[in-house]
Amino acid sequence: MTANEFRCHRVQVEDGIAEVVIDRPPVNALDSAGWEELARILRELPEDPAVRVVLIAAEGRGFCAGVDIKELAEDGSRITRVNRACYAAFAAVHDCAVPVIAAAHGFCLGGGIGIVGSADMVLASEDARFGLPEIDRGALGAASHLLRMFPIQKVRRMLYTGEPISAAEAWRLGALEAVVPASELRGAARDLAARIASKSPVAVRLAKESLDGIEPFDLKRSYRFEQGFTLELYTSPDSREAREAFLEKREARFSGAGSGRKPEG
């Protein structure tokens, strides 16, 4: 068994299972360095032939609250680094040479959706909820990852309203492998990981590569397209007001400036 401590994550490898635990109190919201670290971990782990499956879980009240908005509040110019870091992390989950299982509990929001929506399989605790609150934070993004989990009209509702859905609803829609009590989540995820780890490592890696090659849409290209709109929105007064209102815990007062953009063509 090997174990390592990183800035925002803990990593342990045992019996072919690499367990990556997100651990950045209070809500596991990652700054750009945290997302970069996650990407690096997931690129490097499969280089070890002893790693046959990756399990991503988290400590604390929830799985992941997404991007640390305080970083952007302190320096708005960091939006480009944040965008690149999120892209790299989600791509590293999706492109990981071995299967990735996500075990989500509590809140799974924003960047958390990017993680679970890039994974091969997702298990959730009964108290888990999934959402993209970006529209209330002056941003967009990760709808591409929701599309790997939910039907298009459900994705649109979630993006437009910012309202999360429960683990029970996510299960009904077929997005989850299982829903279990919170106390059983990590164990259930490890059991599934162990079943995969018991198979031929050559076969599993080839199966992962083949499945990535036959997906119906290019996840990374779609997300990169989304990020352009995130950047465009981020430069608007409404985006700034949304971020400030969130941090100040008050109702946002939107001017609508910049809403008259006409479609091209």
CATH class: Alpha Beta
* Secondary structure tally: strands: 12
Instruction: Choose one word for the global shape.
Output: globular
Structural class: alpha/beta
Share of residues in helices:
40-55%
String of helices and strands: EEEEHEEHHEEHEEHHEHEHHHH
Percentage of residues in DSSP E strands: 15-25%
The CATH superfamily bears the name: 2-enoyl-CoA Hydratase, Chain A, domain 1
Q: What is the domain tally?
A: 1
Cross-sheet strand order for the largest sheet: 1-2-3-5-7-9-12
Uncertain runs: none
Query: From the coordinates shown, what is the CATH architecture?
Result: Alpha-Beta Complex
Span between termini: 58 Å
The main pleated sheet reads as: 7 strands, mixed
Number of distinct helices:
11
Give me the Rg, rounded: 18 Å
Would you give the CATH topology?
Answer: 2-enoyl-CoA Hydratase, Chain A, domain 1
Mean of pLDDT = 93
Describe the structure.
- By secondary structure, the chain is an alpha/beta fold.
- It has a single domain (2-182, 201-213), classed as 2-enoyl-CoA Hydratase, Chain A, domain 1 (Alpha-Beta Complex).
- Helices cover 44% and strands 18% of the residues.
- The chain contains eleven helices and twelve strands.
- It has helices at residues 32-44, 69-74, 79-95, 111-116, 143-146, 152-161, 167-172, 185-197, 201-213, 219-234, 237-248; strands spanning 2-5, 9-14, 17-22, 29-30, 53-58, 66-67, 100-104, 107-109, 121-125, 129-131, 165-166, 178-180.
- The model has no long low-confidence stretch (mean pLDDT 93).
